[in-house]
Amino acid sequence: MKRCSTGCKDTFLFVISTFSFLISYSQWYDPEKVNPKAAEVFMSAIEDADNQKYSQAIVKINDALRIEPKFVNAYLSMAGIYANLKKYDSSVYFFEKGIALDSVYSSTYFLPYSISLAGTGQFERALHAVTLFLQNDKLNQQSVKAGNYRKSVYEFAIDYAIKHPANNYVFAPKNLGENVNSTWPEYYPSITIDGSKLIFTRRVNNDEDFYECSLIDGKWDKAKPLGGKVNTNLNEGAQNISQDGEWIIFTGCNYPEGQGSCDLYISRRTNNGWSEAENVGPVLNTDFWESAPSLSPDKKDLYFSSSQAGGYGGKDIWVSHRNEKGKWGRAENLGPVVNTSGDESCAFMYADNQTFFFNSTGHPGYGASDLFFTKKQADTGWTVPVNLGYPVNTIDDEGSLIVAADGKTAYYASEGKDRLGAMDLYSFELREDIRPPKTLWVKGKVFDSKTKAGLPSSVELTDINSRQVISKVQTDEDGNYLTTLPVGKEYAFNVNRRGYLFFSENYNLNDNNIDSVFTADIPLQPIEPGASVVLKNIFFDSKKTELQPASMAELNSVIQLMNDNPTLKLLISGHTDNVGKPQDNITLSNNRALAVVNYLLASRQIAKDRLQYKGFGESKPIADNTTEEGKAKNRRTEMSVISNTP
Fold first, then answer.
1. What is the pTM of this model?
2. What single-letter DSSP state applies at residue 590?
3. Are the C-beta atoms of 473 and 496 separated by less than 8 Å?
4. Dist. CA 557–CA 150, nearest whole Å
5. Distance of alpha carbon 468 from alpha carbon 354, whole angstroms
6. Given 2.40.240.20, 1.25.40.10, 1.10.220.30, 3.40.50.720, which CATH number is that of 6-163?
7. Between the ranges 59-63, 326-330, 365-369, 556-560, where is the mean pLDDT highest?
8. Do 585 and 574 form a contact (C-beta atoms < 8 A)?
9. Are 286 and 307 in contact (CB under 8 A)?
10. Please, are residues 520 and 505 in contact by the beta-carbon 8 Å criterion?
């Protein structure tokens, strides 16, 4: 996950390769007067460092220091080597050894010294060091620009820490262990909604393939290549497994049938393993670079990074929507709130279908590509991205990150100190203020209430308070569905199917201790005289007849039902509990039923002779009026079939 940015690397190489040409301003240190033998060994070390033979260079510099213990350039160049290796603690140590010997001569190195300080998270000290660097009136324009850039980064880091206090948060990544990781690089993790299946990329001898692990009794079993035909002798990478574990979308580069340099491909789980990959198609793939895909939980939206024309920077994040026929539409740019003049990639849509993680070089951050999250809005817009902060983000490049459905467990690839290979997979807990909501795995079956046969249908889930459709899930041929919902809200479940009354129910998922799996089976009643359904998502204030805004989604479903069944005639009936005078309850329930009818007629889509209304007051209770729960059930609006004659 951590990779040094180009600017960072260039700075440190500058330190290594130009040491002997700097003009000394110190009162005592002169590189021309270094012990000749030490200088000879040192020059050989620098040649090794220039060729990235860092281990050999470190040995030789130590040899030079044994000959010349006050060899300032040796200390400073050793610091630069460790910075290139991203061993910032060691880099700071050697910078400070050189500075302690001669602070005036070493002042030219205060910029790379500040970067190494920032690499250890010491942003206030880094700011002080770069401020001293910028006080040198002999700096060229490029050095001033680089110094001011780093100064702005450190100021951002300090300000972020003030606005987002850690509150005893400890960043403690855990290596997923030898069952998952190997001596080869592992990266780009992806996980199913129930947390039982982990998919990732492993690169063996420069060949990328997909591997999987299963969680058994709280431990990952031994990783094995994906079965079937998805892995080939070509490189497969940057994959995302759908939340239900049935699809894998991934990046294939230089495939014979590719549209551009890198395209998106799809493979499906079958009884014989994963299917041979198919190019998602020219509607989505272009002549440019497409990569880093992420499916929404309901598999309706596909997010990805692309360098195609029409964006805001080098690489932008785009989204394609899948229609009811299963076809992907032309990709749309996520817009300037998410995308910048820099690069955006590594998309990940969390299980709530609202919280979106990505990395970016263009939003304010710590100096390279940082990780951010944004929230999808009801109008399809996005909130201003939030930086995940240090130490998740560092001065180096941050790659892909995913978050499990519990909202707190994150997975990523890292070059951690305890890694088994070049790069391993780790997990850690997100800081509380950047956690998305815990999300449930919601499943059930849509079926005929009479025959009990499963019915292929579309299940629409709406946040009652915001009226935002969270997801629209298509069942399989047997009526089974699987989706996700964040805990802490109330949801309306609606199902429309031709020939049936639509289903309407709301569920309160405010309990954060609820099980990870929530089951909601959905019976549909055939449209026939006498069939009725309670409209669970019609709301009125106490003793009022004005419809609450949260009722509109349900009422629009009634309109859709009547449009789908043009001969259908309905009775809208109002009911109350037994509080108050019976005649007052009759009047209240009648006026509420009338309010529903008036809304339906106002749509100008329904003829007046297809609707009737009546208030029954407290005369037809369906629950005990001695309890508050029973009274709430009795306060209801019902929809009944009068006729449906073709």
1. 0.78
2. H
3. no
4. 55
5. 11
6. 1.25.40.10
7. 59-63
8. no
9. no
10. yes
